[in-house]
Fold this sequence. Notes:
321 residues, alpha/beta, Rossmann fold, 6-stranded antiparallel sheet, 6-stranded parallel sheet, 7 helices
Amino acid sequence: MKDLSLDLSLMVAVVVVAACLAGKLEPLSGGAVIWQLLRPKHVEPFLCRERKQMRLVDKTEVSPDTYRFLFALQDPNQPLGLPVGQHLKVFGPNVPGVVPGEWNGKPDLESSAKEISRKYSPVSSSTARGTVELVVKVYSKQQVPPFLDGGKMSQFLQTLQIGDKIDVQGPFGKAKYNGRGSFSLASRVTSKKKVGLLAGGTGITPIFQLIRRVLEDHADPTQLFLVYANKREEDILLRDEIEELENEYPDRLSVWYTLEFPPAGWKYSSGFISKEMIQGHLPPPSVDTLVMCCGPRAMIENACLRNLAEVGYDREDIFCF
């Protein structure tokens, strides 16, 4: 063991002397020199508003129509560089619809484009390095209207094989969580103690990213209240992860579900998000409360904004992704 220690010391000394002779180090004290040699290199964030490529390293089917994709960045020590609350664009090839010039029975506004892009919010931790994780619901082609064509991007992602690369770009978005209850929303910064979260379907992904970031910081006092709407129980994305966090932090996260088609014995709500659900499961309107919404446009306009206004929330205290 003594000989091994001497060998290691000799190796460090040789490296230090060589570095000094090469002009790469100033003649510092031994400890400072060793720290300069061994400290981790600074790695620039992956996302910088330019198009980049990332490689698929794992693909897991989490339900009959939903996949979890794990992509590798350019450097295993590289942070993604995506502020919590923002998203990245994924690019893919354009394809024609079953009916020329149409997509799912409506005029295809992308018919002349060679490629398409869609926005996604990662579900991996904001502090993760070297990889990023996306959860994507695949909308497949159906034999009857109105979904003859399905989803352009989701079907493309479903075809990806391990090792395939995709183009991405970011960050984008008007919301950013600064931590400890501070939010940058469009052109203003606001601080809130309680945050109501209304999510529908795949709209849970930016909401989950925020939940995870808040709860990872044990000194963050922000309280979170989630109401999550879906068609059926099997459509609830990230349910295991959400409930694990709720069980671990019961005083910081409250979760409630509602289903359009609930199974027998369902213990949560049924139907669309209602005024009664908001009153029962979100914090009441106040200067300390913010409500964030993400989901289909019809849900946002008809269920969220309308009912929130009736309950008494100021529009300034509501943010829609």
